[in-house]
Amino acid sequence: MFRTAANRFLGGARHYNGNIGLRFRRPLTLITSSRYSTTENQPFSNPHSIHDAIPVSTTENPSFNDSTSSTSSSSSDDDSRRQSSKSRAKYEDEHARLLHASLTHVMKLGWTEAALMAGANDVGLSPSIVGSLSRKEAALVEFFMDECLQRLVDRIDTDETLKILSPSDCISKLIKFRLEMQAPYISIWPEALSIQAQPVNVPTSFKQRAMLVDEIWHAAGDKASDIDWYAKRTVLGGIYSTTEIYMLTDSSADFQDTWTFLDARVKDAFDLKKTIQEARYLAEAVSVGLGNSFQRFVGKVYRR
Amino acid sequence: MVKVSKEVMQKAATLLSDFLVCPLSKQPLRVCEESNSLISDAIAVSFPIKNGIPCLVPRDGKILEEEDEDASKPDNDANLYAGNEDDKGRSS
Amino acid sequence: MAFGTVTKRFGNKLFPALSSTPRLLHSHATSFGFKHVNEEEKARMVGDVFTSVAASYDTMNDLMSAGLHRLWKERLVSMLNPFPGMKHLDVAGGTGDVAFRILDNINRVKQRRLPNAFKVSLESETQIYVCDINPNMLNVGKQRATEKGYGEDGSLVWVEGNAESLSFQNDSMDGYTIAFGIRNVTHIEKVLSEAHRVLKPGGRFLCLELSHVSLPIFKELYDLYSFSVIPRIGEMVAGDRESYQYLVESIRRFPPQEKFASMIADAGFQKVEYENLVGGVVAIHSGLKI
């Protein structure tokens, strides 16, 4: 699931501006100790980039997850990469199964370790496996976000009606579709948001939201890569976040008030855009005020 | 959570035989109360329990010399891993 | 890998080694610290070391590591992430240090989580098995447990056994830890494969061990400390210089972090990682059984 979206992104049908890539580098050192890992476990990362992201030396990783070779990497790189992808896939598959099963317990137990352990029990794994997840509760929330993104992507691919809609309608429709996925979890969504807001989790949640916003804009027909790119993503990100938060306190039937709110926000944003002068103004203000720090932030995040 | 000592001993012994297996054949053990040991019927070896601690180090095991066990014959031992079930069938 | 299967086959054939004169697997020399000894001797010599240090084991640990060993064990237990109702095996943990910490951790978790009680924990009891090849160490541990009130509910079980040939069923343990024990075994691969055998799918293997320091100046200081200071402390406090000389040398003979990690992966574990503490003086290796 992660890989299909990753391939779509890197597959070339679109291009990105600047330095936003999908290589997510894990920090080498923890606070008090140095850490080494034979694998990287990132959402939406291209399998090949994982090898680049592994620090230290390049000779050792392939053999570690492969139970048949005890000596190291004198064998061809391709071979060992394939083998290690296979066995790496195995425990990542199990993690994915675990997270998927845990989602069914989230309503009762919250985004917590208890939900993860209940999930482990469901899939027949020892609850100890939860200890091997990095940032346990965050892993659950991020998995959910990735799943939702995948469903959105599938919907974009299959829904023909999107193409005939105007950009603003398309955006409204897609954001509505995406937020509806969170509707069943709305009572515990604040908890998920607070988990995403923790400093250690912010890079991943930021990246996931950036990808979400990008998908939506792309589906709405935007292929631009100029300075407006930042402005547009920022604006859409703002619309999405405010609607998401509005939804938390909305008690109307089927979240009708939320969709009204959403439509109003989208309309505002597009009205603004109609005036070229104001669009340029916005773009400049955003890029100067936000873009620099945005770029710096993104640079920091993706350099890791 | 039994407090009476005799029952505790018995319970402890049953508890031991429930989850411990023979270190060599990995087959279940049974408790022998008179000798205060754990018996591995699969390979006819007994392991002592000292001070409430079962001693399941392979070299501490004592081969049992019982009448209907084939354990005394050396060539049988080599087959024991392969055919525990057969041995049990033959000896019973 | 081949090495492992060869020893297994030998083990089967030479199995009648239960009598008083054990015949052996194969007699290639192995290391007792920097000395060359025969394999049959190694287990006995290591046994002698631990018999003699058992009583003052904890004091010596405190002195040698300046009390840091407590932090390292805490880190090990927090990485393990214990949960109520788990079945855990602590190997070579005779005096019970790690086992007690796990019980403490579980009790803390229980108190925190009571409102959201996880169902399985109510159905099954926590069981920590402490396995050690040395009965003296186990006796010391058992005594400490009684003094401190651990295990009164039957959650601690003391078993004397060999890490290379465990007396537990397949797929029965949620967790396996071995703290400062694996460098003393004769066949590391057998210990690792036994660990893999007894763990349930999803179970984790964690090993805390003194390891190799590679930072240049720190390494020299560490060597100086190890070879000059520690045996002397051993002599003064425990009256046993030789044993501590062995302990220090055995650290150097143990494979470095990466090699050990590859051995763990060879035993069938996935997601093999290690974390260096204090620049490599100590390393915690972990693996996942899927």
UniProtKB/TrEMBL annotation, chain A:
Cellular compartments annotated: Mitochondrion
GO annotations of cellular component type: mitochondrial inner membrane
Upper taxonomic lineage: Eukaryota, Viridiplantae, Streptophyta, Embryophyta, Tracheophyta
Region Disordered, residue ranges: 37-93
Keyword Glycoprotein: no
Record organism: Pisum sativum (Garden pea)
GO MF terms, alphabetically ordered: lipid binding
Role description: Membrane-associated protein that warps the membrane surface to access and bind aromatic isoprenes with high specificity, including ubiquinone (CoQ) isoprene intermediates and presents them directly to Coq7, therefore facilitating the Coq7-mediated hydroxylase step. Participates in the biosynthesis of coenzyme Q, also named ubiquinone, an essential lipid-soluble electron transporter for aerobic cellular respiration.
Domain of life of the native organism: Eukaryota
Protein's recorded name: Ubiquinone biosynthesis protein
One Gene Ontology biological process: ubiquinone biosynthetic process
Residue span, COQ9 C-terminal domain: 202-272
Nucleotide-binding listed as a keyword: no
TrEMBL record, chain B:
InterPro entries from the UniProt entry: Trm112-like
Domain of life, per lineage: Eukaryota
Region spans: Disordered: 66-92
Alphabetized Pfam families for the sequence: Trm112p (PF03966)
Protein family: Belongs to the PREY family.
Name of the molecule in the record: Protein preY, mitochondrial
Organism, as annotated: Pisum sativum (Garden pea)
UniProtKB/TrEMBL annotation, chain C:
Pathway as given in its UniProt record: Cofactor biosynthesis; ubiquinone biosynthesis
Positions that bind S-adenosyl-L-methionine: 95, 132, 162-163
Uppermost EC category: transferase
Keyword entries, A-Z: Membrane, Methyltransferase, Mitochondrion, Mitochondrion inner membrane, S-adenosyl-L-methionine, Transferase, Ubiquinone biosynthesis
GO cellular component, one term: extrinsic component of mitochondrial inner membrane
Domain of life: Eukaryota
CDD domains tied to this protein: AdoMet_MTases (cd02440)
Record GO biological process: methylation
Subcellular location: Mitochondrion inner membrane
InterPro entries documented for this protein: SAM-dependent_MTases_sf, UbiE/COQ5_MeTrFase, UbiE/COQ5_MeTrFase_CS
Membrane topology reported for the UniProt record: Peripheral membrane protein
Enzymatic reactions: a 2-methoxy-6-(all-trans-polyprenyl)benzene-1,4-diol + S-adenosyl-L-methionine = a 5-methoxy-2-methyl-3-(all-trans-polyprenyl)benzene-1,4-diol + S-adenosyl-L-homocysteine + H(+)
Any one GO molecular function term: 2-methoxy-6-polyprenyl-1,4-benzoquinol methyltransferase activity
EC number: 2.1.1.201
Assembly: Component of a multi-subunit COQ enzyme complex, composed of at least COQ3, COQ4, COQ5, COQ6, COQ7 and COQ9. Interacts with PYURF; the interaction is direct, stabilizes COQ5 protein and associates PYURF with COQ enzyme complex.
Role: Methyltransferase required for the conversion of 2-polyprenyl-6-methoxy-1,4-benzoquinol (DDMQH2) to 2-polyprenyl-3-methyl-6-methoxy-1,4-benzoquinol (DMQH2).
UniProt cross-references to PANTHER family, sorted A to Z: 2-METHOXY-6-POLYPRENYL-1,4-BENZOQUINOL METHYLASE, MITOCHONDRIAL (PTHR43591:SF24), METHYLTRANSFERASE (PTHR43591)
Name recorded for this polypeptide: 2-methoxy-6-polyprenyl-1,4-benzoquinol methylase, mitochondrial
Organism (species): Pisum sativum
Gene name of the record: COQ5
